[in-house]
Amino acid sequence: MTTLLSIEGLRKEYPVRSGLLRRTVGTVKAVDGISLEIKRGSTFGLLGESGCGKSTLCYMILGLDTPSAGSILFCGKDITRLGYRERKAWRKDIQPVFQDPYGALPPRMRVGRVLEEPFRIHGLDTTNRAATLLERVNLPPGLVDRYPHEVSGGQRQRVVIARALALDPSLVVLDEPVSALDVSVQARVLDLLESLQADLELTYLFVSHDLGVVRYVSDEIGVMYLGELVERGSAEAVYGNALHPYTWTLLWAMPSLRQPHLRRRSDQVRGEQPSPLNVPSGCKFSTRCPLATDKCREERPPLREVMPGHWAACHYAEEVPRRMRDLKSETEGAEYEPG
Amino acid sequence: MVAYILRRLLQSAFVIFGVACVTFLVLRLVPGDPARLMVPPGTSEKVVDSLRKELGTDQPLIVQFGRFLGGLLQGDLGQSFRQGRPVLELVLDALPATLALASTTMLTAVLVAVPLGIAAAYRSGGILDRVILIFSLAGQSVPNFWLGVMLVLVFAIRLQWFPAIGMGGPRSIVLPTLTLALILIAILVRTVRQSMLEALNEDYVRTARAKGMPETKVVLVHALKNAAIPLVTILGLQVGFVLGGAFVVELIFDWPGVGLLALEAIRTRDFPVVQGVVILVAAVFTFANLAVDIAYAYLNPRVRMGGET
Amino acid sequence: MRELLSLRLLARPTVLIGLIIVTVLLICALGAPWIAPYDPFASRPAEQFLPPVWADGGTTDHLLGTDQLGRDLASRMLYGARTSLAIAGAAVLLSGAFGAVVGLFAGYFRGPVETVIMRLADVQLAFPFILLALAILSVTETKSVLTMITVLAIADWVIHARVSRGRVLVERERDYVRAARALGSSHLRIAFRYIMPTVLPTLLVIVLVEMAVLMVVEAILAFIGLGIDPPGLSWGTIMADGRTNIAVAPWMAMLPGMAIFLSVLGVNLVADGLSDVLNPRLRGGGRIGEGTAVREDDQQTLETPQPMMTTEASNDAASGTGNLLVVDGLRVEFPGPDGSVVAVQDVGFELAPGERLGIVGESGSGKSMTALSIIGLIEAPGRVTAGSIKFKNRELVGVPPRAMNRIRGAEIAMIFQDPATSLNPTLTVAYQIAEVIVHHQQVGRKVARRKAVEALELVNINDPQRVAGAYPFQLSGGMQQRVMIAMALSCKPDLLIADEPTTALDVTTQAQILSELDTLVQRLNTGIILITHDLGLIAEFTERTVVMRDGLVCEVESTKEIVNNPQHPYTQSLLQAVMDLNEPEAPRSR
């Protein structure tokens, strides 16, 4: 399988200004050195909570933001330093699906018109395009005359997907595509995405904070925390044998009906995510990690290949699975039992 | 908060400088020769020429501007063409009258509009609310000079309760104030009501009710404290409205303020005076806004604590 | 959409009146040459100062009287309408178009373009409106109609620019703008094709309002002698004539003034109506509807479809009198322009003291409305139209708000989803907690503050004194929610309703908050109703569960049963969806 997208040492920093003269007093490192590869036809799931920089990463890949450092290679070509005309051509190949189905469609434009826009922008013929696209996402062709607010949330999201597919992209970047939808609708949209991927040979970068959703669709998973990739590997490996304590907290947070008290173990993780203005020294997770040692607070662990194809940024990655399993919630084993 | 205030101070200084420049340019760039405009038609060119020299309008624009700026920094706004006195003196003489009028207007308007607006928001949809809305709409539509003339006709000429013109005893300020204040109240009531309604629809009001807080507390503490913040800013803008309206009111009531001074100066084509009044009024307005911004900084905990700039 | 706009607009009486006035105005202005009885410029010195027809000495020859030159006032006013309208209309269109585009550029492109434009606007705004027009007009030699239009347009553009920029700043952050850029759209296309249409409605309202303003300004300028040169004729110039002759012929000033007033009023009424339709008026201050008393005899037999699952909860719960809360046949409706919206059709369940009940459902299920009706916070015009809510054997439906205030916070408490907006940003944490204690426990301020700090300790806040003195925005999301919990539990209520308490928090904080809530609720033996869309939360936290859909109860069972042996098809599908996504061992349903 060939590599479609390759990111190398990608960074994005923003200056922080303060005081009367707006002097730069520091930087926020929204994306702090990310490297990953996505193979053609596969789905790469990027897992992370709000504030970890996943959206910024997406914007850079989509060409909406310029990186401060690093490179993005698409089909072997560095797309971060392209001229206007070249970039416009490449845009057809990388398309987004965003979270908020309402904000993702221009409120005063009919659905049909929205779906014709991609073609108009590139000077292509628009006959029948809207209807064909709607069909592809299992929506009735009559929707072309409706406005976005006249259509349900799930349907809107399908329209967004249809728009993304208009120009036959190779890579689709999905940023929390189902988070705003009801659970019963989520599975259907995810299934649609899966069948589209098979039919159209698409490659997905799927970003979400929900591990259940990510696991459902991904071949490979990357976990992001405060701008960095802390774990990376196949979906089975990351899910079945996580090597980073942060991944474990995300795992515990999955609603598990069989083992409901699993979630409580997350309370072993102290405090809240530090503000990106105030990043801890050493390992960024050290302020909250139940396994943190002095070494963690002083030395930032690099992302290393702990096992073949399975990377983690933790000094004690090898011991992590065993030690995290042994941790118990403070309230676990107390008298209270549900039901 | 300090950083915020300092920045606003800087902005205000810049704005006043800008005002001075614009005023200067406007009065010079509009086609027409001030010297010729000042003399009766048919005056000989020689006379006009010497007048030009005297006014300094024979110099290139840049030189005039330089002299103007230099004077400005020293507090010198030039000399009145007609009255031979320094403009600054003339304007400062007339300013107190205008300020008195403006202050009583603002005070009256706030004291009446704020409680009415709160009441309207509190009982939104009720009779009081509807009455207030109608009155507010009507009040906004009334031309101020018409209102002034009507008030004079009714209260000064017909009923003889108040004097029609001139600045005299306390009675004399009533009609001029009413003319300005009634319209301002109409506008303010709407704004207060809107601001309160927005606050009352916020989540924290729902929380206050969920805690069992009595409705008066919910409205007067929880909502008002938040509604006051944007309101204060709007009050600042209304000062400009009052200052502008004062010009007309001073004309109708022969009130010896800067408005009357300026209008006379326009009639007699005494441009330095016009210039001086415009710059000074704009400066007063800018400072009023600055004061408002400081009040805003104090009222808004985010700015006060230095979180936001 | 345009059709909808005009229909709803016409339904309002005020707008109708406004439209009538404006139409009359337009007819007068456009039809002046045909309607006016006399030549407006023809002077008849013999007929000067004739009063209007309704006053002494008036004749039907001159319905509105004559001026100092004997010119017919009615004709002059008709022709004056043309000029006044033309000047104001042209000026506002000019300034509106210019301002909108300039504002669009400033807001969209930002950077130096924005700075320059906004600084310029700042300087111009430092001049009270009239002052600028005054300054310019004082030096112009000839004041033609064109001059007036230009001057007014110059004075007015800033407002349109500001409004336009404001809206654009918001819209440019939306995802559809990003999507368009990702498609390769040019900036200009995005600005004009996508963003501008969203700005236009607001601008339209502003244009109307400003037109009214400019009509008045033109009149004022004419009044003080800076209007269009004679023989130019506008309402302002007529009033200017009237001013000098006010003692002799007061109607010369009164009538045009009246005309201006009515015209401006008309335009304002239309603008107002338009504004309401485009930005729906905020509901009545979130006021709580008066309690709906539904007596037994009044109760209509409602045509609700049978709830899909008869509850067998009676086996679990104690007999009626022992229950903390009994909800029966609850119905909540929101009357609207197109008939009533029924948010809750028929809901019933029970809660024993200290029990944990979950209400689970997707969006639109009515679960939040059910919760709000228990605590009596349904916002007007919504109300409980049927059913009963018995709390400690006391009927809550129909209880007036003032009596409910004594129950809320003290016996029933509620926490909400988003702690950032649910806490008052201008009051300290200490104040917000203490006021509950003061109100319900009738203790002094100092005692209350001490208790507030204790409450904060209860929710595991490490530095309670500091947090007490802080403002909500200074705290993190998790802290804020802890404050909410402390506030809710400060008076040790018997029932706590938690509406999606952890949804807005990040994953690890969610777990912490839940742990603490768990401990607290156990310790205080508070009954808790947990409302959520998250089945995992339900499984973890509750003893019994109510499954809701479309305002109806589908199933009420012990949580264990619901999770392991769901009866109702909807519950089954819900579980299946969750399992698909989260349980690796379970086979994926396709």
What does this entry show, briefly?
The complex is a heterotrimer of chains A (339), B (309) and C (590). By secondary structure, chain B is mainly α.
Describe the structure.
The complex is a heterotrimer of chains A (339), B (309) and C (590). Helices cover 29% and strands 24% of the residues of chain A. Chain A is of the alpha/beta class and 339 residues long. Chain B is an all-alpha fold and 309 residues long. Chain B has two domains: 2-73, no CATH class; 102-256, Orthogonal Bundle (MetI-like fold). The longest helix of chain B has 39 residues, at 215-253. Chain B starts with a helix and ends in a 5-residue tail after the last helix. The longest helix of chain C has 37 residues, at 73-109. A six-stranded mixed β-sheet of chain C has the order 6-7-8-3-9-10, sandwiched between helices. Among the domains of chain C are: 56-282, MetI-like fold; 424-492. Chains in contact: A-B, A-C, B-C. Chains B and C meet through helix 1, helix 6, helix 7, helix 8 and helix 9 of B and helix 4, helix 5, helix 8, helix 10 and helix 13 of C.
What does the secondary structure layout of this molecule look like, with pairings?
The complex is a heterotrimer of chains A (339), B (309) and C (590).
Chain A: E1 3-18, E2 23-39, E3 43-47, H1 54-61, E4 69-74, E5 77-78, H2 84-91, E6 94-97, H3 111-121, H4 129-136, H5 153-165, E7 171-175, H6 183-200, E8 203-208, H7 211-217, E9 220-225, E10 228-234, H8 235-240, H9 245-252, H10 294-298, E11 304-307, E12 310-312, H11 320-326
Parallel strand pairs in A: 3-8, 3-9, 6-7, 7-8
Antiparallel strand pairs in A: 1-2, 1-4, 4-5, 9-10, 10-12, 11-12
Chain B: H1 2-29, H2 34-38, H3 45-55, H4 61-73, H5 87-122, H6 127-141, H7 144-158, H8 174-200, H9 203-210, H10 215-253, H11 258-267, H12 271-299, H13 301-304
Helix pairs in contact in B: 1-4, 1-12, 5-6, 5-8, 5-10, 5-12, 6-8, 7-8, 7-10, 8-10, 9-10, 10-11, 10-12, 11-12
Chain C: H1 2-11, H2 13-35, H3 73-109, H4 111-125, H5 129-137, H6 145-171, H7 175-183, H8 187-223, H9 235-244, H10 251-278, H11 313-316, E1 325-336, E2 339-351, E3 356-360, H12 367-375, E4 383-391, E5 394-395, H13 401-407, E6 412-415, H14 419-422, H15 429-441, H16 445-458, H17 464-469, H18 477-489, E7 495-499, H19 507-524, E8 527-532, H20 535-541, E9 544-549, E10 552-558, H21 559-564, H22 569-582
Helix pairs in contact in C: 2-3, 2-10, 3-4, 3-6, 3-8, 4-6, 5-6, 6-8, 7-8, 8-9, 8-10, 9-10, 15-16, 15-18, 16-18, 18-19
